[in-house]
Each structure stands twice: as C-alpha cells, then as structure tokens.
Hints:
Elements: H1 4-19, E1 29-33, E2 40-42, E3 58-60, E4 66-68, H2 77-86, E5 92-96, H3 99-106, H4 116-122, E6 128-129, H5 137-147, E7 152-155, E8 159-164, H6 167-189, H7 199-212
Amino acid sequence: MLLKELREEVLEKSVQMIKDGLAFGAGGNISALDSESGLIAITPSAIEYTKMKTADIVVIDKVGKVVDGKWKPTSESPMHTIFYRERDDVGAVVHTHAPQASVFAIINEPVPMVVAEAALCIGEPVKVAPYRRPGTDELARIVLETMGDGVAVLLAQHGMIAVGSSLREAYSSTIATEMSARLAIMARSIGAAPINLDPEEVKELRQLYMRHYHPTTSD
C-alpha cells in the first residue's frame, strides 16, 4: 500500500478528532504530506471516520490529483493542497468543526489568547477568514492569505483549520484553539471578561515553544 504508515497516522488522528468532539460523522478533514515523494495522504469524502479503514485514506498530489485510493478525496482538498504548494513549513493540515471555536467563527471574532498553553501552540489570536463557499479555490485562497505565516485560522460560518510541520503539531494547535475558545466562552458565561495575555508575551511564549518543545533524552 502506498504511504501505508502516513495513511494510518491520518486515520488515527481522524478518529481522535471524533473522540475529542471536534467533528462529527464524516465532518472535517485531515491530511499529511510525505516529504520524500511530495504526495499527500488525505481523508476521503463522506465516509464516517469510525467506519474508515487505512485503505480508505486517499493519496493525492499537490494539485489534488488522485494517485492511489478508491474514493474521492474530501471536497476540501483545495484548502489542504494550497498550503503544501505555497508554504514549505507545512507538513499537515487539520480542518475541524470544533464547536467552541466555531462560536467565534459565526460571530466574526478572533479566538483570544487567554492561557499560556494556547499561546505556546498558536502564537497569536486566531483570526477569522471571510466567508467563502466550502470546497472552493476561493475559500482555499482566503484561508491561506488570512493565516499568513501563522498556524490556525477560523472559517467564517464554518469551523477552523490548523497547520503544522507534522500532524502532531497541527492537531495540538487545533486543541489549543478550541481550549482557548472554550475558556473565553466560560468566562463570559459567568459575567466576567477574560483577560488576554499581553501580545508580546504571546509571541515570546511561541518562540520558546518553537525552540524547546520537542522530545529530548536525559543525557
């Protein structure tokens, strides 16, 4: 099977996305890049993740052409492939319908950085990309432009997307965005205004994360 291990990793994270309440049924989509071949393992369209097998994950190239797999790739493939074509630092893309983050997406308000853990993973408030119809090249382009060199962005009236050098990083940024959104909503629900971290502290925390947060031995 072509890119068997990468397909397994994409499937594993897809099932985790459902367990974590970030998507439901066949909602959302995940992809990862094989740096050697330049090919992409991506979730198929309209198949529930809990029923999916490794072979159901589709392999495409950077323009969305199917290289291996019996299913059509997700209709959101353009929103994935544009990152692999235009950002050399991106090795994985995670698109979810995370409910708390989606609250901010429907009120057109960035997710604030209210806890250090989120600042470490994300490095800035998560902006909202203007609405474009799902599955279109127009959505892919506005998402890329709104995110800039960041790692996460909200999709107006839709959900969120996060990227990373690996699936672990992209998924961590997804969780961090959802956590920050949840805590901000909880604070507002008790009539309190959440206190945002200082922007310079957010940037510094992100730099610390980038420099030091990786597995190391004790030697």
